[in-house]
Structure formats: C-alpha cells, structure tokens
Amino acid sequence: MIDFAWTGGRLYVGGHVDKVGFAMLYPISNSSALCASARVSSSHDHPIASRAESLRCALGPHSPLRDRPKFVIRPATHEDAAALALLAERTFRATFGAANRAEDMDAHCRNSYSAARQADEIARIDGATLLGLANDALIGFIQLRWGTAPSAIASLAAGEIQRLYADAAWHGRGLANALLQAGLAVLRAHHLDQVWLGVWEHNPRARAFYRKCGFVDVGEHIFQLGDDPQRDVLMARRLD
Ligand SMILES: CC(C)(COP(=O)(O)OP(=O)(O)OC[C@H]1O[C@@H](n2cnc3c(N)ncnc32)[C@H](O)[C@@H]1OP(=O)(O)O)[C@@H](O)C(=O)NCCC(=O)NCCS
C-alpha cells in the first residue's frame, strides 16, 4: 500500500490526485515542511498541477493509490480550530466514553477540546497538527510535539505523538497509517531520531496498530483522566 511518494527530490503525502478536482500535496524538503493545496481545472494550467502530474507519474497508472478511499492530509490552520475541537472531543468520547466515568470524561474534554485550546495546539512552534479530510469534512487528525520526553525514551531528539484519532468509519482503511506516516515525516524534517507515545493499557486496537507500525513497549506512565490516574503504556520507535 502506498501512502506517500518521492518525486522531484521531495516527499509527497496525499490521498487523491486527479486532472479535475482537489489536488493535495504535502511536500517535505530536507529542512522544511511545506504545504500546497489547490483546486485545479486541468493538469497543465496551474503550478500545483504540474506537481500533481508528477506525483501521478511517479505512482504509475496502476498504483493502488488510485483505488484507495479518497482522503487528503494537510496541516491545520487557525481556521480549523473549532472543527478540530469538535472532532477531537467526538472521537475521544467514542473511544473512551463507555469505559470511563462521565465526570472524568467531561473534565478532560473541558480542559483539552475547546476551540481556543485547539487553536493554541495548532499555533505551537514545538508541535504540529495534521488533518485528514474527505469531501472537505474532518475525519481524523494527528498532533505531534517535541522538546521533552520521559526518561524511558533514550534520545534527546525525540518527538511525541500526542494524539492520533480517526473517525470510526475510517478505522481499518489506511487513514491512520497515512496520518502516522505524514507525522513521522514532519518529525524527521525537524531532525528528530525517535518517536514515542503513551497509549492506555486498555486500548488493544491502538496498541496493535502501533506495534504493526514498528513501535515497541518501553515503559509506562500515568495519564490523568479527570480524577482517575490511568496506566499508559509508553511505546517508541526509531525514525529511520
Ligand atoms: C488507533 C487507530 C488510530 C488505529 O487506526 P486503524 O485504522 O483502526 O488501524 P488498523 O486497522 O490499521 O490496525 C489496527 C489493528 O488492530 C487490530 N485490532 C482491532 N481490534 C483489536 C482488538 N480488540 N485487540 C487487538 N487488536 C485489534 C486490527 O485487526 C488491526 O490489525 P491488522 O491490520 O493486523 O488486522 C484508530 O483505531 C483510532 O482512531 N482509534 C480511536 C482513537 C485511538 O484509540 N487513538 C489512539 C490513542 S493513543
């Protein structure tokens, strides 16, 4: 399965490239992460379109990318904060609501998923937020940050996957892996050499997903959900 491609010396992450319609490319050079997106009316009349064309050529006419579910990945902007806050709270409640006390869920959501709080997350210079969209609707996101890491992480240049959430309808369809690969590319572009995350011990699907993606258990820490101190498994992998 192809989630990204190298062409013209750059990494492009994208879900759908066509002659007419939405073209989304996420080029990452050695030193910087840039985003370009545009509505193109033909593959020849827009500067972005030539990149779209080269991505299509790089993938080839029979690429599995053509038959995959159509989604795009792009960095979040300030204008996305309110919609991101709604998606983040909805997916958090869908994942953990049934297994936790309502008051602990409410307290966590109040602190973490206001539009203002998400605007701060989007704006932080020691982090990044990438969004997954289908037909202009938000369907998933990944939030990254760097600067500090627990002692179990044996690197001074480590980045954290703070949050990775996909709408339930998109589980098992490649969106989470595409978000993850785009996130890892951002961390590499910031010259980090390791990535880590904390995942609730009672979240078997996420733990299986991360294992499949090369993460191993390296320790544990406490995640405070409202008044409930929970055991998170720390997982990490190298950024080769
Ligand atoms: C975690 C998440 C991002 C993974 O994305 P995904 O598209 O569901 O992942 P995949 O389907 O590619 O991989 C999940 C794997 O777990 C397996 N799995 C599913 N349910 C499982 C369970 N109860 N126990 C163990 N493994 C399970 C799947 O079979 C799959 O493995 P396979 O591809 O070898 O069959 C997504 O499920 C999600 O957004 N969950 C809700 C939010 C969340 O938990 N985020 C992580 C917080 S740290």
What does this structure look like?
This protein has helices at residues 47-59, 81-96, 102-112, 115-123, 175-189, 204-212, and strands at 4-7, 10-13, 21-25, 36-40, 72-75, 127-134, 137-146, 158-166, 194-200, 216-225, 228-238. The protein has 240 residues and is α+β, with helices and mostly antiparallel strands. The chain has a 7-stranded mixed sheet with strand order 5-6-7-8-9-11-10, sandwiched between helices. The protein is globular, with a radius of gyration of 18 Å. Residues 91, 95, 164-166, 171-172, 176-177, 199, 203-206, 208-209, 212 line the site of coenzyme A. Coenzyme A (COA) is lined by residues 91, 95, 164-166, 171-172, 176-177, 199, 203-206, 208-209, 212.
